[in-house]
Design a protein that fits this description.
It is elongated and about 80 Å long. The strands form two sheets. A five-stranded mixed sheet has the order 1-2-3-5-6, covered by helices on one side. The chain has a two-stranded antiparallel sheet with strand order 4-7. Helices cover 48% and strands 8% of the residues. The chain has two domains: 6-26 and 94-364, Vanadium-containing Chloroperoxidase, domain 1; 34-88, no CATH class. Strand 1 (110-113) and strand 2 (122-126) form a beta hairpin. The chain starts with 5 loop residues before the first helix and ends with a helix. With 367 residues, it is of the alpha+beta class.
Length: 367
């Protein structure tokens, strides 16, 4: 699966950039990154290039190395080129390149099968052909039946407006406050989480495009969303998907968190973030139900690409029973739980990818 146009690429880059800018994973908290001095081309100091050139000329006038790259130069220690494809070298690259490598390793191993009609599923498969997740979209009657739920949830906007507004961007802060995630201590953890977010975001966008389901505000002028309506389809919900991926990856990474009270709290945080999107008038309850299921499946697959682990595929079929009152996510439900949700009976074993395994190992050292 690959991005096929510049709009999709810019959307992905904007998603990653907004996250990076908000959390400054390129430098420890309180520190100033080299980019801020203009060394990476930042236009805040236009004199820097000229000053560097003048300083170089002055210094080399008296102190030029006898042999470029020789014994008295910094390259004298380089005896040979490094072994190719060494995952351990990831630590030498910046956050952007590490994220790009992780994205490539993940996306180059999956394929997407669109639905053949309105009642058939869309399927995401691993390169080996095994299903990662299959989702069938609801019928229009279910969306119409849930308009009343969206309208009723608007009553909670006054008490949740701060959450809604701050959760438009990837809401890492809400998870960080639970697990004591800090920029200066957990830079490699943020690299891992970023990779998982971009994988989830890219995948959910592919499902959204295929299903092309309208937003609540497309159905009724009474909805009047609290924030600008995102420029993509409604089903499945992206915040629900990405939030569940973040919660699962952190729970699996942090020692003794999976299956504990901490894991439950992280999953509850993801639930509330997704619920706030209904309160804001942006999603139907069924969007969150399918989004969470997609997040469970993608998280299981992602973790299995990082460490030896059996991964479980997910399935969601709202067509089988289009009960609007039941097609909702509820707090406290287990992974792959919920109405019309389930996990396939035959989980597949996956051999970890060397680059992703290194990202995980680097992040694990921080805990």
């Amino acid at each position: 699966m690959a991005l096929s146009n510049s709009t999709g690429l810019m959307s992905l880059l904007a998603h990653r950039t907004a996250h990076g800018d908000a959390h400054r994973t390129s430098a420890p908290a309180g520190a100033v990154a080299l980019e801020d001095y203009g060394f990476a081309g930042f236009p805040g100091n236009p004199l820097l290039a000229s000053a560097l050139n003048e300083a170089r000329a002055a210094v080399l006038l008296e102190h030029r190395p006898n042999s470029l790259g020789g014994a008295d130069d910094i390259g004298g220690k380089i005896a040979a080129l490094p072994a190719p494809e060494d995952a351990a070298r990831l630590v030498q690259w910046g956050p952007g390149p590490r994220a790009a490598l992780a994205d490539f390793e993940l996306l180059s191993r999956v394929s997407f099968e669109p639905p053949t009609d309105g009642a058939s599923p869309a399927i995401l498969r691993d390169a080996g052909g095994a299903e990662i997740v299959r989702i069938t979209r609801p019928q229009i009657a279910l969306f119409r039946a849930q308009l009343g739920d969206v309208d009723a949830q608007a009553a909670g906007r006054e008490g949740r407006s701060a959450e809604v507004l701050t959760q438009v961007a990837p809401p890492i802060a809400f998870y960080a406050s639970v697990v004591n995630l800090r920029a200066h201590r957990h830079r490699r953890t943020m690299d891992l989480v970023n990779a998982a977010i971009v994988f989830a975001n890219t995948t959910v966008m592919r499902f959204k495009h295929s299903f092309a389901c309208p937003r609540p505000s497309d159905f009724s002028a009474a909805i009047q969303p609290l924030v600008e309506v995102p420029p993509h389809a409604s089903f499945p919900a992206g915040h629900a998907c990405e939030g569940q991926v973040i919660a699962t990856v952190l729970a699996e990474l942090i020692p003794n968190a999976a299956g504990s009270k901490l894991g439950e709290i992280l999953r509850s945080v993801a639930f509330r973030i997704a619920e706030n999107r209904i309160v804001a008038g942006l999603h139907f309850p069924v969007d969150n139900l399918a989004g969470r299921l997609l997040g469970d499946a993608l998280a299981s697959y992602f973790v299995s690409r990082c460490i030896p682990r059996i991964w479980h595929s997910g399935q969601f079929d709202a067509v089988a029973d289009g009960d609007a009152a039941l097609a909702k996510a509820f707090d406290g439900e287990p992974p792959f739980g919920g109405h019309a949700c389930g996990s396939t009976a035959s989980p597949a074993a996956s051999v970890p990818n060397p680059l992703l395994a290194q990202l995980w190992a680097d992040a694990l050292q921080e805990w």
